[in-house]
């Protein structure tokens, strides 16, 4: 499934073969929570801007339009007209983000819908069933995402429960993949490493879940309150204990500089809502760092967002025009900036892959960090 093509210190260059195509890694997954990228970006656009993997949300699609509806319409790939890999997260992050509207028990989590307040139950089996109905390429195991910092005893108990849930997820997926009416009978499963900022708990959990022989492994529960230095420390501690022949996925991270630092520590997969969310508010990434197009200094700026960029926005429009669109509240402004930011991220990952192929990743990383921040 996963072929390691080259390593440059701890940075890894690989290929991940899936039922919906081969993913070149390191890779950034473009987040389409409700089977669409916020900012009026279509699945056809995703191909134009170099997207390899689209990511959608189990919990949100379960609420609307309903995973049973999507199954009746042929699965998520057909529903959103995207023929390349899709990863669905498990709903586990909602355990964290809806903390005031849920109750965690051994069998699973009881939610109140953030839309209409109705009661919802989701456990490992339910999460796997929903993701099977969605027929995504990669399903994520159901886990509990822990707030940082959390008391050590709570973290220990939570991690043990996450391990028990993982076993239930694997058993349920094996069952679902064997059923006649399952759309994607080769659906893959990634497990999630938890443990807060406690290195010893993280390492033991990594050792435990590695025994499950899954298709890939994620490092979860980061970018939820800890510092960047703590996050990098946890990645460095955990990485040696995850299988070398399986992809590693750092969930929900992050800024371009975070990605470079994590790649240098052995991470292969990334996702984050940040590039699309920033774009919708006029914050765009450039080779010189991030800029805010609402600033008055761009009113007469006839340059593209980033000179040399090949994205649809930079090839056709100026900073001044896009700023005008934002000021006039025209939604084209959001669309152009989201397209640009996602192109920036996807191109960054392509350049990272080339740098690792050529054994010059550390040089590339330091050069980029200096360009963006004025320091490596």
UniProtKB/TrEMBL annotation:
<protein>
    <recommendedName>
        <fullName>Queuine tRNA-ribosyltransferase</fullName>
        <ecNumber>2.4.2.29</ecNumber>
    </recommendedName>
</protein>
<feature type="binding site">
    <location>
        <position position="143"/>
    </location>
    <ligand>
        <name>substrate</name>
    </ligand>
</feature>
<feature type="active site" description="Nucleophile">
    <location>
        <position position="271"/>
    </location>
</feature>
<comment type="similarity">
    <text>Belongs to the queuine tRNA-ribosyltransferase family.</text>
</comment>
<comment type="function">
    <text>Catalyzes the base-exchange of a guanine (G) residue with the queuine precursor 7-aminomethyl-7-deazaguanine (PreQ1) at position 34 (anticodon wobble position) in tRNAs with GU(N) anticodons (tRNA-Asp, -Asn, -His and -Tyr). Catalysis occurs through a double-displacement mechanism. The nucleophile active site attacks the C1' of nucleotide 34 to detach the guanine base from the RNA, forming a covalent enzyme-RNA intermediate. The proton acceptor active site deprotonates the incoming PreQ1, allowing a nucleophilic attack on the C1' of the ribose to form the product.</text>
</comment>
<dbReference type="GO" id="GO:0008616">
    <property type="term" value="P:tRNA queuosine(34) biosynthetic process"/>
</dbReference>
<keyword id="KW-0671">Queuosine biosynthesis</keyword>
<feature type="binding site">
    <location>
        <position position="311"/>
    </location>
    <ligand>
        <name>Zn(2+)</name>
    </ligand>
</feature>
<comment type="subunit">
    <text>Homodimer. Within each dimer, one monomer is responsible for RNA recognition and catalysis, while the other monomer binds to the replacement base PreQ1.</text>
</comment>
<feature type="binding site">
    <location>
        <begin position="89"/>
        <end position="93"/>
    </location>
    <ligand>
        <name>substrate</name>
    </ligand>
</feature>
<dbReference type="InterPro" id="IPR004803">
    <property type="entry name" value="TGT"/>
</dbReference>
<feature type="binding site">
    <location>
        <position position="309"/>
    </location>
    <ligand>
        <name>Zn(2+)</name>
    </ligand>
</feature>
<dbReference type="GO" id="GO:0008479">
    <property type="term" value="F:tRNA-guanosine(34) queuine transglycosylase activity"/>
</dbReference>
<keyword id="KW-0862">Zinc</keyword>
<feature type="binding site">
    <location>
        <position position="314"/>
    </location>
    <ligand>
        <name>Zn(2+)</name>
    </ligand>
</feature>
<feature type="region of interest" description="RNA binding">
    <location>
        <begin position="252"/>
        <end position="258"/>
    </location>
</feature>
<comment type="pathway">
    <text>tRNA modification; tRNA-queuosine biosynthesis.</text>
</comment>
<keyword id="KW-0808">Transferase</keyword>
<dbReference type="GO" id="GO:0046872">
    <property type="term" value="F:metal ion binding"/>
</dbReference>
<feature type="domain" description="tRNA-guanine(15) transglycosylase-like">
    <location>
        <begin position="10"/>
        <end position="371"/>
    </location>
</feature>
<keyword id="KW-0479">Metal-binding</keyword>
<feature type="binding site">
    <location>
        <position position="221"/>
    </location>
    <ligand>
        <name>substrate</name>
    </ligand>
</feature>
<keyword id="KW-0819">tRNA processing</keyword>
<keyword id="KW-0328">Glycosyltransferase</keyword>
<dbReference type="GO" id="GO:0005829">
    <property type="term" value="C:cytosol"/>
</dbReference>
<feature type="active site" description="Proton acceptor">
    <location>
        <position position="89"/>
    </location>
</feature>
<feature type="binding site">
    <location>
        <position position="340"/>
    </location>
    <ligand>
        <name>Zn(2+)</name>
    </ligand>
</feature>
<dbReference type="InterPro" id="IPR036511">
    <property type="entry name" value="TGT-like_sf"/>
</dbReference>
<dbReference type="InterPro" id="IPR050076">
    <property type="entry name" value="ArchSynthase1/Queuine_TRR"/>
</dbReference>
<feature type="binding site">
    <location>
        <position position="194"/>
    </location>
    <ligand>
        <name>substrate</name>
    </ligand>
</feature>
<dbReference type="InterPro" id="IPR002616">
    <property type="entry name" value="tRNA_ribo_trans-like"/>
</dbReference>
<feature type="region of interest" description="RNA binding; important for wobble base 34 recognition">
    <location>
        <begin position="276"/>
        <end position="280"/>
    </location>
</feature>
<dbReference type="Pfam" id="PF01702">
    <property type="entry name" value="TGT"/>
</dbReference>
């Amino acid at each position: 499934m996963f072929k390691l093509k080259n390593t440059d210190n701890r940075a890894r260059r690989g290929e991940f073969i899936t039922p919906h195509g081969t993913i070149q890694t390191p890779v950034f997954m473009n987040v389409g929570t409700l089977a669409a990228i916020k900012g009026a970006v279509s699945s056809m656009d995703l191909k134009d801007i170099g997207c390899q993997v689209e990511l959608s949300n189990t919990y949100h699609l379960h609420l609307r339009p309903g995973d049973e509806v999507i199954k009746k319409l042929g699965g998520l790939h057909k529903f959103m007209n995207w023929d390349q890999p899709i990863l669905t997260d498990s709903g586990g992050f909602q355990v964290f983000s809806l903390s005031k509207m849920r109750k965690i028990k051994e069998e699973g989590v009881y939610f109140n819908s953030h839309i209409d307040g109705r009661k919802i139950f989701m456990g490992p089996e339910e999460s796997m069933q929903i993701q099977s109905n969605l027929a995504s390429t990669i399903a994520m195991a159901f886990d509990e995402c822990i707030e940082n910092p959390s008391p050590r005893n709570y973290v220990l108990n939570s991690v043990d429960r996450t391990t028990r849930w993982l076993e239930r997820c694997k058993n349920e997926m094996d069952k679902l993949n064997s059923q006649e009416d399952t759309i994607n009978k080769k659906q893959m499963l990634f497990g999630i490493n938890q443990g807060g900022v406690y290195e010893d708990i993280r390492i033991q959990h990594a050792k435990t879940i590695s025994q499950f022989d899954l298709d890939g492994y994620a490092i979860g529960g980061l970018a939820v309150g800890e510092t960047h230095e703590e996050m990098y420390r946890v990645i460095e501690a955990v990485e040696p204990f995850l299988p070398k022949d399986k992809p590693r996925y750092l969930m929900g991270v992050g800024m371009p500089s975070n990605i470079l630092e994590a790649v240098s520590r052995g991470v292969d997969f990334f996702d984050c809502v940040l590039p699309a969310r920033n774009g919708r508010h006029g914050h765009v990434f450039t080779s010189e760092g991030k800029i805010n197009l609402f600033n008055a200094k761009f009113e007469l700026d006839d340059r593209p967002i980033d000179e040399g960029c090949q994205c649809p926005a930079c090839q056709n429009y100026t900073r001044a025009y896009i700023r005008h669109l934002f000021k006039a509240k025209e939604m084209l402004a959001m669309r152009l900036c989201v397209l640009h930011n996602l192109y920036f991220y996807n191109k960054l990952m392509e350049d990272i892959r080339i740098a690792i192929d050529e054994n010059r990743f550390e040089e590339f990383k330091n050069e980029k960090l200096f360009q963006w921040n004025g320091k490596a």
